[in-house]
From TrEMBL:
Name of the protein: NAD kinase
Family from the record: Belongs to the NAD kinase family.
HAMAP family recorded: NAD_kinase
Upper classification of the organism: Bacteria, Pseudomonadati, Pseudomonadota, Alphaproteobacteria, Rhodobacterales
Binding site for NAD(+): D45, G46, H50, N115, E116, D145, A153, T156, A157, Y158, N159, Y160, S161, A180
Length: 255
């Protein structure tokens, strides 16, 4: 007999997610997040990222059910046998990236990103970026629409759309990818160890403004951005057997 989990149901604002939450609460009850064995998130990938960030200091893992569009981080939605599915679910542990960004007014901004940290031009002219890795200059000038550093979990998102590589879960590798590189035109990015510290300096920041984004948290007019993995923070996410991130990352490459 499946364990009766104490569940906290959360949902995005879209009606289909709110309707699902109401039905599930009526069927399984509702527990406060701080007391729950598991948090069930109803929505899309954006809501899952929001939930993981918001609950990172709680003990309960997060199990998502897709009531959004793509649902790469979500399981299939079903109201039946939820307790059995939770009992059999497999856990993945994700470490986010930490971003520290300095803006033209001298302020420092900090944020965490489960998928990627990206820098994007914020004006009509291409951005000019200098890239330093672990204190060593690697690229003196990258002229581009932007650049990003992606985790394995985020490698199928914006990174893949920018022609970056898909990274296996647990590979301890980060993907550094250019967005529409103009010079060096043939530069396709780099694979870096998870322990690497990556620094972007924005060249001519006033003439060529750049914004930074960490999982949809935007910082405008940055002059430099430092990114590193944050192993002290572990996001626990649950998947149905045979449908975990590793399988999804492999399947994505054959579709």
């Amino acid at each position: 007999m499946a364990k009766d989990f104490k569940i906290a149901f959360v949902a995005s604002d879209v009606p289909v997610a709110q309707t699902a939450r109401a039905a599930l609460i009526q069927r399984f009850g509702q527990t406060d997040e701080a007391e729950a064995d598991v948090i069930v998130a109803l929505g899309g990938d954006g809501f899952m990222l929001h939930t993981l960030h918001r609950t990172q200091n709680l003990d309960a893992p997060v199990y998502g059910m897709n009531r959004g569009t793509v649902g790469f981080l979500m399981n299939e939605y079903s109201e039946s046998d939820l307790m059995g599915r939770l009992a059999e679910a497999q856990e993945e542990v994700l470490n986010p990236l930490s971003m520290t960004a300095k803006t033209v007014d001298g302020k420092l901004h900090k944020a965490l990103a489960i998928n990627e940290v990206s820098l994007l031009r914020a004006g009509p002219q291409a951005a000019k970026l200098k890239i330093t890795i672990d204190g060593r200059l690697r690229l003196a000038e990258l002229v581009c629409d932007g650049a990003l550093l992606a985790t394995p979990a985020g490698s199928t998102a914006y990174n893949y759309s920018a022609h970056g590589p898909i990274l296996p879960i647990g590979s301890d590798v980060l993907a550094l990818t250019a967005v529409a590189a103009f010079r060096p035109r043939r530069w396709r990015g780099a694979l870096l160890p998870k322990s690497a510290e990556v620094r972007f300096d924005v060249l001519d920041a006033k003439k060529r403004p750049v914004m930074a984004d960490a999982d949809s948290l935007w910082v405008e007019n940055v002059v430099w951005v430092v990114i590193r993995s944050e192993p002290s923070i572990a996001h626990r996410i649950l998947f149905d057997p045979g449908h975990g991130l590793e399988e999804r990352l492999i399947r994505e490459q054959f579709e």
